[in-house]
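Chapter summary example.
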Amino acid sequence: MAYDIDMIKKVYSQMGERVNAAREAVGKPLTLSEKILYSHLWDGKPTQKFTRGKDYVEFAPDRIACQDATAQMALLQFMQAGKKNVAVPTTVHCDHLIQAKLGAQFDLPSAKKSSDEVFDFLESVSNKYGIGFWKPGAGIIHQVVLENYAFPGGMMIGTDSHTVNAGGLGMVAIGVGGADAVDVMAGMAWELKFPKLIGVKLTGKLSGWTSSKDVILKVAGILTVKGGTGAIIEYFGEGAESMSATGKGTICNMGAEVGATTSTFGYDESMARYLRATNRADVADAANEVKEHLTGDPEVYANPEQYFDEVIEINLSELKPHLNGPFTPDLATPISEMAEKAKEHDWPINVDWGLIGSCTNSSYEDLTRAASIAKQAVDKKIKAKSDFGINPGSEQIRFTAERDGLLQIFEDLDATIFTNACGPCIGQWDRSDRKGEEKNTIVHSFNRNFSKRADGNPNTHAFVGSPEMVAAIAISGRLDFDPSRDTLLNEDGKYVKLDEPTGLELPPKGFDVEDPGYLAPTEDGSSVEVKVNPNSERLQLLDPFQPWDGKNLTGAKLLIKAHGKCTTDHISMAGPWLRFRGHLDNISNNCLIGAVNAFNMKTNFVKNQITGEYDGVPATQRKYKAAGIPTVVVGDHNYGEGSSREHAAMEPRHLGVKVVLVKSFARIHETNLKKQGMLGITFANESDYDLIQEDDTFNFIDLEGFAPDKQLTIEVVHADGSKDTIKANHTYNLPQIEWYKEGSALNLIKKQNAA
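The structure predicted for these 755 residues follows.
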């Protein structure tokens, strides 16, 4: 039986009435995305049409999922909300704080020892507030959610950008910052700008070396890292129905890499099969009763151009295997063209590591397809030229894969089986074969490949591919290897060719597991004590941010003008910094240390306008804060791209930054800034970015009249006394302006609860 089956049945019981009401309000047939959105309105039954990309709408999500790195700050905030229990089903998953080094049998005990304080905190706070807790080693949050909680037609938010993975089971699942999750945990509405809709029509059928991963690698190449911003991507067509549920999950997972709000597929037989295979026949039966509401209306898919803001069509029968990268997940290259492109750009040809797993590709099907290639290497006497690392998606996957002999196949190639956790995908990788910053190449089946992400080395060229392609390239040891046409020299001196991969959608003997790693909360957590050591380096109780004084902001200094791509990895790095995710002051020592200073093209090296000296960004900002001087951060396009981590908003707020002024924001980061009481604004004229100089002072002329749809005027005073007056846009509505006035959204929640 599924978790929370009564909640799921309630969602389905009211779906028909709400979808019909939405269809009447909108005045035309509905996409799947619209059906789910309109059936989850905070006010219940739809009565009006919302304008895509413009109207802010309040929703009532069905559940929340949090991973351990972001859950710390989310739950520290929730503890201040004055609630006895979470208002909707919520789970915490311990998957980010486990470093991959020697293998699961060594790494998991080591992580439990080094992060026991954090795990104990998360377990106790979960127990107190009615939150389901998945222990370290239980699995990667998004695979565990797919196996246990995701359901067609549902709405979920999660404190991780790849929450969108649950679209593989027909959900609208959206990554958010912890403050958004706290709103819903506290029984309040969740606000989102009503998304635009991108339709992707899939025709034909995958075959040979092409996999579901190649669909999203192709889409990323089309849309780029910001082409999906503010939109839901909805996949449909005969090609969509031909893919497995976990394959659909892979596609939805990497929708985060094009900036999409989320991605989803209509309910079909593959989803029903997966639900039944994961002991949720009750969900499949319930979904079948309302299945007409769990996919787009037929008229929509027959004439998609009339119902979507943008339509992309991909013929799966013609799609070729891809590798995307390096340094960005949208640089798409067909395998057949990699040799020429690598030579043109001087990418290192020799491949040092092949890494398989992560939340994107760690299902049973993924492992079987990769194992089919690994087994050929063993059988055909081909010695792997690269090192191998495997991260199973969950303990259920690992246990079943071990039972069925899949892991042994990889071990026969001397692969290291890492813990059921994120590991190298998020920078939790103690890579033994590299020192310094040597130029090198790795291939992996993950989702992101930003500079330094996997191993901290800015010269590691990381390429993203399917598990089976990663296996083939790692075995060959060459980036330019095309398994569809190239041969390999085996130990007998013979040239042999790899056959096309084969895989199993679901385990023939069924899934099995001895201990899935789940701890249910006690029914009454009122007596549970949550302890935080005041001298801890890992955890710190939060102090509220100060409200706005209602006055114009004047005399603000420039902290940094960031050049080019500035992701949340640049603003708040992961890797070794993950250990401080529950301690705001300590983790603030990584604030913007990865951002490139536009005035000297260096990282973590900015001018202190008080002393005229150069220092690290956090150290400089702490001096401004001590002197009572407000500061401004200036950035380029798609500022805050990447992870949902709200630390990227909380750290500058904690250190005293008042304003982030950029050309454009990534969706989640803009919301996170608003939630934390920060002023996040954009240049009305993008070229004004070029006017900003290193010694600038900012005076806000009309902030006292802060109002929706009203531009802000800023006087920029340069060191020579000259001035430029620029205009800035913002997207704050009235409730969000109240967050700003109160100092944060959480301050407003506490104020309302106190009343």
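To summarize the output: The chain is about 30% helix and 15% strand.
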